[in-house]
Amino acid sequence: MLKKLFRESFIYGISRYISKFIGVFLLPLYTSVLAPQDYGILDLLGTITLVSSFLIISGTDSALGYYYFRKEYISERPVMISSALWLRIIFSLTACVIILILAPNLSFLLFGKDVSLFVIITALTLIFSNIYSFLMDLLRFELRPWLYSVYSTGGVLINILLTIYFVLILKQGVYGALIASAIAYGVLFLFTCIYVFRKYGLGFSAKWIKDITKYGFPLIGTGIAVWVLGSTDRYFLAHYQGLDINGIYAVGKKMAEAIGMVAGALQLAWGPFAMDIQYESNAKKTYAKVFILFSLINIIVVFGISMFAIDILKILTQPEYYSAMAVVPFLCLSTVLSSAYFIVAIGINITKKLQHTIWITIAAAALNIILNFFLTPVYGAIGASFSIMTANFLIFILTLIISQKHYRINFRFGSILIIFFPSALVVTLTYILEFKLVPRIIISTLFLSAIGIYLYNIFKHSSDFKKLVGMLKNIFRMDVSKSSEP
Q1: How many helices (H) and strands (E) does the chain have?
Q2: What is the dihedral sign for C-alpha 98, 175, 53, 209?
Q3: Which domain holds residue 209?
Q4: Is the pLDDT of residue 23 over 60?
Q5: Do the domain assignments include residue 194?
Q6: pTM of the shown model
Q7: I need a labelling partner for 366 at 20 to 30 A (CA). Which of 81, 158, 207, 351 fits?
Q8: Closest by alpha carbon to 98, among 58, 133, 127?
């Protein structure tokens, strides 16, 4: 089972790696054309998309995922899926109309000036992007990772090429970036409708609309709380520190997205995989193994990015963005915690205790607001990044407690913490003492070697490790035999 999960995670990861690589590759070009204030504007416009998407989706993606894998509903999948898409279209149009009406007010609220055109373009893009996200969810449910990667990578390439044309060639700045995104998602919107309606028909079932919304609506509160959780830092920064600081902070978040390439690939494969194996006798052991592997890999990745954040920034950005290095460790950990939540929440999903996600997320959002209120005016971007990291940690802990109560899994936290705390200590000392590049390379090499030795001693007797070693030996023997052939 793990082999299937890792294979699909790798395939999903291909599209994420390509998109993130292209995004990072273009970062030096963007930062040379867009001032930090422009970056800040784009970032805040993203918050409009985020909150609207939560309201549009309204938990219907989770609902469709739940019913899709229920054995008793297999024969009803076509009308279930087409009804879910119609529901997404209706919600998207409604959200777009509301944003268009409120565009002037939102413009002054977010930016203190009239940039209604930016808000209007964002509203139109919202329709296309949310319909496209429906296709991405459906392909995961269909367990078609390769097709997912083709559509996802194609969409990214279209968006990037259009952005290069409008932003870098035509020098259209924020307007060009928004127009490029609108056109790209418009194309993807057409692909989505063609794929879904040709395969599953145009059916519309009141029963399935009711069932999907009934399952998903309790998650609306969670969605709004998630938006508050993920956007509060930007609003506080823009208010207390200005759009330029918000733009620098956005670059730090872009670096933290590198963690998303690891965490996100597994996360995409995890939902369908976890629900699909829930009836297997060793499902709980599989869940535990995935969690420990996920945690160990991400700790190492966070360590590496944090140790060399300033060097990456010097390569990819301009000097006015270098201060983003201070927020990178906090934002990286925040990304890992928000992804780890999906794994430990499996008990809540299987036992249908989704009502707990509402108060958990609301509590974390409230904590984020409180921390930002006290920390952001004084510590700026560092205070905002620490606030979001702490809030995501609260979500993780509360979700773990509730999930374990209803569906206990023996997660092995000991070996994870033994690696995490020394890693955090080394990174902290490196930042405080401001080590140069060569000492950081030496320290990182020695520390990662020590981690490798520790993990080898811990897992060398496990059956999974022995299988991996045996597989590598077989590959090596095949290579030797081939090379010895005349």
Answers
A1: 19, 0
A2: positive
A3: 2-412
A4: no
A5: yes
A6: 0.70
A7: 351
A8: 127
